[in-house]
């Protein structure tokens, strides 16, 4: 037993061995870390740039869709903002027309100046009202003689008539109107019944044969 061992005891040698093992492991770890390749900072920047570009393109597409929807909503608001008002004005126009139709023809021919002036005034008022509505996109539908369409017409009765194609509008009880591309009020009509079926175009027949 050496003097050093006698001085420090048997545990001192074991501690020295442990310290040497730890130091050796630290050196190995440092060597392994040095051998590993450091990530390229340029590649990291490129990856981040690609992510930002993708996010930008998505945001630009969303903004473009939002712009189109907003433009469409604004256009619809301008076109159809007067829908309720126009529908009420059509009721007034109907009353003016009924007043004109209620005047007997012989009374007009009698030469009463006061009655003629009244009728002319009511007629001018009706025409001015319809002209104002037309400037706001309200148009009258020409239904008589057309094929019955439930999207634009409301059938009130059927008229037996073998000389007119079946489901043809032969009488208009109340005129229909559209505002823009929408139906403001369907036309109340009478349709023919018992006549020949409406002729089918050659294109429609070809499409049916293909189907």
Order of helices and strands: HHHHHHEEEEEEH
Using the alpha-carbon principal axes, give the shape: rod-shaped
User: Helix tally?
Assistant: 7
Question: pLDDT under 50 segments (min length 5)?
Answer: 4-8, 200-208
Gap from first CA to last CA: 111 Å
Report on the biggest sheet. Answer: 3 strands, antiparallel
Query: What is the CA-based Rg, rounded?
Result: 45 Å
Strand element count:
6
Strand order of the largest sheet: 1-4-5
- Portion in strands: 5-15%
Brief account:
This protein is α+β, with helices and mostly antiparallel strands and 211 residues long. The chain is built from seven helices and six strands; from the N terminus they run ααααααββββββα. Helix 4 (83-101) runs antiparallel to helix 6 (113-135).
Account of the protein in words:
It is built from seven helices and six strands, in the order ααααααββββββα. The protein has helices at residues 3-8, 11-35, 41-80, 83-101, 105-109, 113-135, 202-210, and strands at residues 138-140, 153-160, 169-174, 177-179, 182-185, 187-193. The chain has a three-stranded antiparallel β-sheet with strand order 1-4-5. Strands 2-6-3 form a three-stranded mixed β-sheet, with no helix packed on it. A hairpin with a 2-residue loop joins strand 4 (177-179) and strand 5 (182-185). Helix 4 packs antiparallel against helix 6. The radius of gyration is 45 Å and the shape is rod-shaped. The model is unreliable at 4-8 and 200-208 (pLDDT under 50).
């Amino acid at each position: 037993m050496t003097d050093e061992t006698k001085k420090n005891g048997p545990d001192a040698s074991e501690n020295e061995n442990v310290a040497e093992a730890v130091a050796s492991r630290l050196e190995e770890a440092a060597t392994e870390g040095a051998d590993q390749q450091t990530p390229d900072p340029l590649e990291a920047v490129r990856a981040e740039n690609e992510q930002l570009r993708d996010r930008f393109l998505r945001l630009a597409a969303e903004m473009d869709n939002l712009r189109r929807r907003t433009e469409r909503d604004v256009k619809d608001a301008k076109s159809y903002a007067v829908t309720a008002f126009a529908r009420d004005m059509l009721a007034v126009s109907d009353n003016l027309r009924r007043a004109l139709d209620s005047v007997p023809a012989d009374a007009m021919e009698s030469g009463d100046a006061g009655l003629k002036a009244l009728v002319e005034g009511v007629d001018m008022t009706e025409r001015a009202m319809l002209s104002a509505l037309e400037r706001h996109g309200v148009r009258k539908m020409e239904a008589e003689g057309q094929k019955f369409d439930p999207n634009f017409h409301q059938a009130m009765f059927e008229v037996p008539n073998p000389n007119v194609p079946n489901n043809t509008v032969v009488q208009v009880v109340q005129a229909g109107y559209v505002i823009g591309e929408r139906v403001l009020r369907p036309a109340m009509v009478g349709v023919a019944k018992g006549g020949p079926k409406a002729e089918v175009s050659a294109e429609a027949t070809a499409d049916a044969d293909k189907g």
